[in-house]
Specification:
The chain is built from 8 helices and 20 strands. With 352 residues, it is an alpha+beta fold. The protein is globular, with a radius of gyration of 25 Å. The mean pLDDT is 91.
Length: 352
Amino acid sequence: MAFLEISNLEKSFGTNRVVKDFNLSIDQGEFVSLLGPSGCGKTTVLRMVGGFETPSGGTITIDDVDVNGLRPNQRNIGMVFQAYALFPNLTVAQNVAFGLKVAGVDKAQTRDRVREMLELIGLSDLGGRYPFQLSGGQQQRVALARALAVRPKVLLLDEPLSALDAKIRASLRREIREIQQRLAITTIFVTHDQEEALSMSDRVVVMTGGMADQIGTPYQIYNQPTTRFVAGFVGTLNTFDATVTDPATGVVQIGETSVVLNRAVPALKGAAVTLAMRPESATLGAGQDGDLILKGKITEVQFQGAIIRITADVGGQQLTLDQFNRAGSPPPAIGAETSISLPASSLVVLVA
């Protein structure tokens, strides 16, 4: 059995069923993100794991112990909230020590543990300050140290970076991941930010409508989406309507063009499917043998620094592709006619 096992979890508020048959197994030391739009149920799942919400059905097991009947302070869980939730009348050191004091840890051990935690988050010299004297990023570090001070079995992070500016957010997510790996603590991270989930996690759970739509590694979620929702929610996507002509060998028809995918398609002959492709998979100009070649006209060019995002009109459909910015190789001109090459291996078939 996994270290943290969530089985058939359900939650309803009156007639509103917000979590539906949610199942997830997490290994010890694993970092798993719950990713999805607002209202998809991800925070409700986190709060049920933490004991702040009572499940309407299902079980939650941590280290072989069913915790459904346990209060939050009985579950040995550390929780970091979006709004920091620091005590304004306590110093940084006192905030970090709070959980230890409640647990009855003696003063000498508490002092050593607080010093260790402040070193861990890089704020050793700020223990005497109060929260209002800290930046947002520093306050969130203190909240993390307070959660870790009690040596929890599981760390829960509820969108802890959403209130920070982009630069601090990027820096702090690296620090959180490094600390999590150093301590090998089992972690659930709730976010609506795709970049956060993909860059920090061992696995990602993409949620919609209270359910886990797909569970996989960041590579799998991005490159091998299994549903239209996941494909459209994570990253930018080009889609094509197609018809299956040979399911066994993966031959599909896009308009007048026949495409051989060289892999079985999970649909019947004649079925309508959607082919999806990431912008970075396409290239301008002639490609390799077996590539799908489309003719189009450049309609938009966005210079984004390292990346140039190009939009082309292909038979009335807008196709987006990304190419690296290379000095001495200017982007194409708007209105230029071009060929666009799509490797068959980059096309994902969506039937759900």
